Amino acid sequence: MKYDISKKSAPKMPTLGKGTECIKILLSQTSKDMHEPLVPMLFPILGAHVSGSEFQYPDFSWKELCGQMANLVAESGGNKGQLSGLVEAICRDFRKHDEDELKKLVEWQKQVKTKGANKEKPVRPDVAFWFPPSDVTSAAFLQNAMSCENLGGRTQYLNMPEVEMADRMCGGHRQISQMLRNIYDRQRAGALRATADGVTGNPLLRTNLTISSTPYATRKFYRNDLFNGTFGRMVFSYKPRTSRDGRIPRQGKYSEDFYKKLDEFLVRLDACKGRFVINPLNKLTDALAQDMATLADLTDDDVLWDASKRALVSAWKAGCVMWILNNQIWTRSMSEVVEWLVYRDIWSKMRIFSDMLKEGDTSTSEAGKDGPKNMLDDLPNSFSETQLETLRTQMGKSKEGTKNQLYQWVHRKFITFDAQTSLFTKTENYLKGND
């Protein structure tokens, strides 16, 4: 495993090399301190430009690039606003399309108002907004999803500067969990109304989301949804509070040259149609799944294990986006970014919510202080069962899980057992891999 997610510092992003040129162009317009936090946020925006395409996941299921959701978390004044500049740059074509759709809707509303009470009202035009406003009601969201499906299965993309805005889109906070899970899984989620004035329909939800929030608001918003699958489906990108250096961060100027370069990549996303299998990406994802199982065994953390399964899917979708952007060619640098995205997502989740996940504490006062800990690293090279049992007790884990954890470590060849001394010893392979 390349990254240690138990540290306070975020996993360091690999050098962006061949195949990641679009990401580098986008980051050129942001301050350096925001490069790593913003990279995971880019893929839901870029992925919303892909429609009419499916990609085969290693489990042989076919997935579209909708359902991507990412939440940028930083303190107030932490430069989260730079995301909005990138959103507008990437979605200029969406804005133009939606302006034309809005004109049709406004003209229809004028005609409705001018008709008398007894005259037949004109039929509402079938318009689809690709980039709806962040202040959207649940009925409008459903109606737009129906239109997007009817007009070719297009993905609608929403950017929410405040996490609380999602309540209105979902019809209230109690519906948040169900709606976000349906979005991620590309499920049908509709409504049946008793009157003609209501919105009735059951479309496939093809939606991508980006959200910005402070640690306090994030913990408050998700605190009741940490164990029902909602938490794992959302990609989190956490930027811890930085030192006070007194320098105002510099952003780009979004020049015509920048837009020209960016548009060359966006054309590739729009033009991608059909079914694809990206074998190098799937091979990497299989290997990362093994790494996640190893990490879960070393930390004896079921929550981490559950969250990692969906972190893999989200990073895999990001890999699909990069593959399209790079003219459908896979590179080593893209593999490094996908791997980093998995670990950064899990690190962010554990930094923000670790205390709430461990103790069931739903307080919202601050982000969690401690991530998952590799217990084997905290033991000497040779140790007894009692030493591991004591360590587990100190970390708030049960004594009963000691024997199973030792069994897993032996099975994975992290340690060997000497029956004569009754001691466990770390293997050479484990020690080399953790130098």
Short recap of the structure:
This protein is an alpha/beta fold. It has helices at residues 21-27, 35-47, 82-90, 92-114, 138-150, 165-170, 176-184, 215-222, 230-233, 256-271, 279-299, 302-325, 332-359, 385-394, 402-411, 428-433, and strands at residues 53-56, 62-63, 69-74, 156-160, 207-213, 235-239, 274-276, 382-383, 415-418, 423-426. 48% of the residues lie in helices and 10% in strands.
Textual characterization of the structure:
The structure is a single chain. With 435 residues, the chain is α/β, with parallel strands linked by helices. The chain contains 16 helices and ten strands. It has a four-stranded parallel sheet, with helices on both faces. Helix 2 packs parallel to helix 3. It is elongated, with a radius of gyration of 24 Å. About 1% of the residues have low confidence.
List keywords for this structure.
2 domains; alpha/beta; Arc Repressor Mutant, subunit A; four-stranded parallel β-sheet; Rossmann fold; 10 strands
Secondary structure: elements and pairs:
Layout (H helix, E strand, L loop, with lengths): L20 H7 L7 H13 L5 E4 L5 E2 L5 E6 L7 H9 L1 H23 L23 H13 L5 E5 L4 H6 L5 H9 L22 E7 L1 H8 L7 H4 L1 E5 L16 H16 L2 E3 L2 H21 L2 H24 L6 H28 L22 E2 L1 H10 L7 H10 L3 E4 L4 E4 L1 H6 L2
Parallel strand pairs: 1-7, 3-5, 3-6, 4-5
Antiparallel strand pairs: 1-2, 8-10, 9-10
Helix pairs in contact: 2-3, 11-12, 12-13
